[in-house]
């Protein structure tokens, strides 16, 4: 079996982070490696945890997802970013 896809969840709402983590952990090929409550903490977690994917809330205090996302790909080379708030736009 291939290595699981390593995921970091960054959202300022704990219930969203915990809910996403709970659902993602049901999939055997996914591994939630960490959670962060804002973009600054998310960048630090990405640097330490080196995730494959970062799920990022776009609207957060301290550093929002739009500010944080480019930095995540710089500190975690295999990292891909996904807009967790896509459903709110439009």
Features:
3 helices; alpha/beta; about 90 residues; globular; about 35% helix; four-stranded parallel β-sheet; Rossmann fold
Summarize the structure.
With 90 residues, the protein is an alpha/beta fold.
Fourth CATH level, the homologous superfamily: Response regulator
Q: What does the radius of gyration come to?
A: 12 Å
Record field, number of beta strands: 4
According to CATH, what is the class? Answer: Alpha Beta
Q: Specify the biggest β-sheet.
A: 4 strands, parallel
Ranges where pLDDT stays below 50 over 5 or more residues in a row are 86-90
Q: Which fold does the CATH topology refer to? A: Rossmann fold
How far is the N terminus from the C terminus? 39 Å
Mean pLDDT: 82
Across the major sheet, the strand order is: 2-1-3-4
The helix/strand order is: EHEHEHE
For the record, the count of structural domains works out to 1
CATH architecture group name:
3-Layer(aba) Sandwich
The structural class is: alpha/beta
Proportion of residues in extended strands: 15-25%
Q: Helix share of residues?
A: 25-40%
**Which oligomeric form is depicted?**
single chain
Quickly count the helices. Answer: 3
Tertiary shape: globular
């Amino acid at each position: 079996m291939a290595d699981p896809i390593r995921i970091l969840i960054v959202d300022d709402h704990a219930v969203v982070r915990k809910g996403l983590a709970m659902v993602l952990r049901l999939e055997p090929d996914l591994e939630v490696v960490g959670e962060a409550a804002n973009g600054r903490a998310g960048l630090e977690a990405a640097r330490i945890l080196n995730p494959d994917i970062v799920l990022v809330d776009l609207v957060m205090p301290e550093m929002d997802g739009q500010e944080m996302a480019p930095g995540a790909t710089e500190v975690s080379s295999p990292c891909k970013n996904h807009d967790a708030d896509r459903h709110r736009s439009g």
